[in-house]
Every structure is written in structure tokens, then in C-alpha cells.
Amino acid sequence: MAAKTKAKAGARTGSGKGARRTAVKRSRDIPLLPIAAAGILLAFAIGIIIYIAVNNKTPVGPATAASIPCDSLQHSQTHYHTGIQIVYQGTMHPIPANIGITGDPAAPSCYYWLHVHAADPNVIHIEAPANQTFTLRQFFAVWDAWSKANGGPAEPLNATHVSTFTLTADQKLIVYVTEEGKAPQLYTGDPNAIELKAHEVITLEITPPDVNPPPSFTFPNGL
What we know:
Order of helices and strands: HEEEEEEEEHEEEEEE
Helix content: 10-25%
Shape: elongated
Low-confidence stretches: 1-13, 47-59
């Protein structure tokens, strides 16, 4: 007799009504709707986190310097400009750009009320929420705080230092103040006490030589 062959899985093992079919397992259906909803919620949460991070940047440096706050926006209630020049042994030395503007200059985290824009070299922008008197001492305090916060050197103004310049025994600091529409005037007091005024130019000269009159200064258009 011919040998019996085994029935294949899934095939009928008999005939007629009593015939049995072997079970074939079916893969479970994946619930797509909950997965899609979870993905949308995750994307929304990431967007919220990014928004908070962008709009709550931590300022770089102290919150205030010589009573000058660093605010998230520039003010317009009080807005004027003072020029500043540093002359060392007859040569002009521009001050750094972006003094008092913390973080990325393209998207600053905050502005001190006294600051310098890269587009306006040697011009101090005085932008405050109310009218008050500001001095050169306060500007140098902002410059010093901003410089140190960005890994730079100290920026003092005193009898033996002007920014990063140290006066030697044979050198002297001579200061000129030029008010708008007037000739330069020699200033013999403490330069820290000089009041910042609209379209005034402050020239700090480390001599010799004494450049007199001091170099001319032209404010950029629109200032």
C-alpha cells in the first residue's frame, strides 16, 4: 500500500461537513489614529519649549551696571547720542562695537540703557525709559561689565587707565569736551563726572603729543 502523506497545515484534514481547517494566525491591526495624535502633541510640546527658550534668553552679564539696567528691549522715551574718542599718542583707537548689547548682536538678550551699535562707531546710544542725567563713569561701568561678561579685559577710567591703556610716568590724560555748535573745550575735572549730552563729543587723549584741537567727529546720518 502507498504510504500515507501528512496533511499540510491550513489544508482540510477531511471532507464534508465534518472536515476541519487548521487555524491560520492573523497579525493584529496597528491603531494609527492614537499614534498620529501622539506625534502631533509631541511636535506641539517641542514648539512650546523652543518658543519659551527664544523669548526668555538669559542675559550675559550683570542685570545692572552703575545703576544702568539691561532691558530686553530698547527704549525710546529718552533717546540721544554722544560721541566718544580715545586718542593714544596721536592715533585714534576706535572703541569696540556692541558695547552694552549682550548675547548675539543679531538677536540680543538685552540692552543696557547706554550702548554702542556696530553701525555707529564711537557713538554712545542713550536709550532710557525716562529722562535723567547719565555720566561717562556709568558708560565705562557698562563697558567694563559687558567686556568681562564676554571674556574681555577690564575697561577702567581713572588717573592711570583709559580702557586697556595704562599711562606711564611720562604720559598724561588730557580731556576735551565739544558741545554741539561750539569749539572743543579743555576739561580739567574728573572725566568720570562728564555728563553725556546730545551731540556732545568727549575726547580722551593719552599724551604726548597733545592733539589740539582734537580730531573732528561726524555723527552718522540720522543720529
